[in-house]
Amino acid sequence: MIEEMLARQTQRWQTAVAARARIDEARGAGPRSAVPALDEWLAPFRERDGESSSHLRSHRQDPEEET
């Protein structure tokens, strides 16, 4: 159940980032953010080779790395 909830939240986050990128593009600017983590998520939208938002990686840490 937790994995399903995390998957849904990740999808919502990716949808929100894509919407943010479209707003910046509509203003004629490349998608950027002063927040480093968000700027990293927006990076694929700045690329000109046509990569989609499906290439965004999750920022969720592996629980084993938190020790």
Short description:
The protein has 67 residues and is an all-alpha fold.
What can you see in these coordinates?
The protein is mainly alpha-helical and 67 residues long. The longest helix is centred in the first third of the chain and has 25 residues.
Which structural class best describes the helix and strand composition?
Answer: mainly alpha
Spans with pLDDT under 50 lasting ≥5 residues?
51-67
Round the Cα radius of gyration to an integer and report it.
14 Å
Mean pLDDT: 79
The number of helical runs is: 2
Please estimate the helix content.
40-55%
- Please indicate the percent range of residues in DSSP E strands (runs of 2 or more): under 5%
Protein topology:
Layout: H1 2-26, H2 36-46
Helix pairs in contact: 1-2
Quick tags:
elongated; mainly alpha; single chain
